[in-house]
Amino acid sequence: MARTSAKTLQRKKAPARKAKKPAKPIALYTWATPNGHKISIMLEELGVPYEVHAVDINKGEQFAPAFLKIAPNNRIPAIMDPNGPGGRPISVFESGAILQYLGRKYGRFYPKDARAQVQVEEWLFWQVGGLGPMAGQANHFRNYAAEDMPYPKKRYTDEVHRLLGVMNKRLATRKYLAGAYSIADMACWSWVLSASKYTDLAQFPHLAAWKDRVGARKAVQRGKAVAADLRKPITDADRKILFGQRAR
What we know:
By secondary structure, the protein is α+β, with helices and mostly antiparallel strands. The relative contact order is 0.15. Strands 2-1-3-4 form a four-stranded mixed beta sheet, covered by helices on one side. About 50% of the residues lie in helices and about 5% in strands. It folds into two domains: about 25-110 and about 230-240, 3-Layer(aba) Sandwich (Glutaredoxin), CATH 3.40.30.10; about 115-215, Up-down Bundle (Glutathione S-transferase Yfyf (Class Pi), Chain A, domain 2), CATH 1.20.1050. The longest helix has 30 residues, at about 115-145. α5 (about 115-145) runs antiparallel to α6.
């Protein structure tokens, strides 16, 4: 029988594998607002590592040069992914774009099937272009305007009411906006929660059931809680920063 030398045995050993470095966490730049909640909820749903960088918009931190490099519109949320396409870092701003990016990267909550994807995108952009801006304006004139202005209060409150009616009809025949739970639901949920402070959702039973269904998810609850303890009532000094902004 041929003998195998120690040298031969050494050559046959599999090369030692280098320990895989843990993925660096995604940096989330956010504040406790409905737009900020969209992304913290998505990251919690994905269960991926991320770290929170609170951007106090009441104090003007959204105008810091470092933040403007990744969010030129000086608005939260934004992310910096150190493990972006091709393994290189990438920053993404605008909540809809961030949701799509994360959905594509991790292959969850954003279907690959073209028809299913269209439905998700319809309701995502419906929120970005409609529900969010209209609810934001209603909230501003109802709660933050320096003077009582009945016309814009009614104008935006009525439009939010109309939009909630659109959602209610949609949800009469399905559990979630695009069929399966998706980034479209995450985008809309916090804005519906905000609108429910001045709109009785009892008149929209399908929407109310959806709000509770989404809100019962543990990841949604965790995402909603991100930076919540940092938010304080705005002061007169805060108003000067938040409202009446012009190009810089």
